[in-house]
Amino acid sequence: MGNKVIKVIQYVLVGGICFILGIFYTFYKIDQRVWDETINKAWDIENRAMNFPEKSCYNWQDIELIIFGEIQE
Q: How many domains does the chain have?
């Protein structure tokens, strides 16, 4: 009986460590910006669209096509 309890505890600990490492890896892949400043995220693209200076050669629909790939409603 004591051996089974120890094995269950070992499996739970190994499973917990694997779970925590999986969570860390997932967040690392989702937000690599902490380590790599050159990656553009969706909010960066939207922010650039909102703060883009109006030029005489571009209208707002051209800017939306360049940044979003389609005209936003």
A: 2
